Amino acid sequence: MLLSGLLLPGPLQTPYPSLPPISAASLRPRAATLRRAGGGGGGGGTVPRRRLEVRALDAAQPFDHESRASDLLERRSKLKIAIIGFGNFGQFLAQTFARQGHTLLAHSRSDYSDAAHSLGVSFFRDPHDLCEEHPDVVLLATSILSTDAVLHSLPIQRLRRNTLFVDVLSVKEFPKNLFLQVLPPDFDILCTHPMFGPESGKDSWTGLPFVYEKVRIGDANGRAERCQRFLDIFEREGCRMVEMSCTDHDENAAEIQFLTHTVGRILAKLDLKPTPINTKGYETLLNLVENTCSDSFELYNGLFMYNKNSTELLDRLDAAFDSLKKELFANLHDILRKQLFESAQSSLERASN
Ligand code: NAP
């Protein structure tokens, strides 16, 4: 440990920051000299006895070896990420990526230069220019329905040979198969689904689920490490990291996500309004409408069209609603029938008396 910032009494103190730091080893003989000069052993000499003491530790200086090493480590942990599809969700992710110090590039069908500028993101109208920047990661945040066309329109031949491709689509089997078909074998593939959005994740991502499958990550040249650095972004925010196959994700997501969005959109059709006697349950319904309808209809449509489990879920929802209605009407019929027959019986009895 260097003692360059020790405040040393008297002649040992060095006021010149440019001088090389003084090591503990180099101080030892001088301290011994001082002890002797101070009459060590209580001999009553004329030079007053002065003790070496640590009064302040220095802050790391940019020229320190440790400081340079930690800078290098910090730089190495940062990624150059290109976001393709800079709409609602792309911009939401960019805020956190930028806060964590990653270099961000973006491209979208619409011109988001101003929004990008305010987030510290370099916006490229032409995807050729973006690809020539050789990002470490290309992240697709396009609508599910447009992903195929967008991926085919990218000049991937301009990228580095082993770029990592990531998607954040809310369905997973579809982008996995698409990437495997379209991307050259040298490209790495990570399929992810951050299961939260600009509404549910606006304050914090702590505890929110992040699902991923490492579909294809090569062994060579730190490719596994690059993938881990990308995952670390979400881990650092406190997400609940769930490694799961794309197939299992879609099975689960039909129930969790498509069902939630469908119920929210059915309720939205009722045009529910707050009342002076709102219950907690009713407020939950109002929130559900707000949360689900703030996402685009295109997103919801994508959940239906690109998850084969969604059709079955709609059928089950239909059947459940029918069965519930049957139960209610059967009860109602029982009561009406009872009333009808009982009143007919009592009229007969009254007539015979
Ligand atoms: P979205 O409506 O699903 O997608 C909007 C994005 O798709 C915009 O960047 C838009 O580009 C692009 N796009 C739409 N049609 C296009 C076309 N024909 N050609 C090129 N680009 C097109 O809304 P989103 O909420 O931003 O979601 C983006 C992705 O993130 C989706 O795959 C979604 O499943 C996923 N995701 C969303 C959430 C969420 O809470 N919102 C959560 C997790 C995952 P322009 O804006 O430039 O037109």
TrEMBL record:
GO biological process, one term: tyrosine biosynthetic process
Record keywords, A-Z: Oxidoreductase
Every Prephenate/arogenate dehydrogenase domain range: 79-353
A Pfam family per the record: TYRAAT1_C
Leader peptide range in chain numbering: none
GO molecular function: arogenate dehydrogenase (NADP+) activity; prephenate dehydrogenase (NAD+) activity; prephenate dehydrogenase (NADP+) activity
Keyword Oxidoreductase attached: yes
SUPFAM superfamilies (alphabetical): 6-phosphogluconate dehydrogenase C-terminal domain-like, NAD(P)-binding Rossmann-fold domains
Protein name: Arogenate dehydrogenase 2, chloroplastic
Source organism of this protein record: Cocos nucifera (Coconut palm)
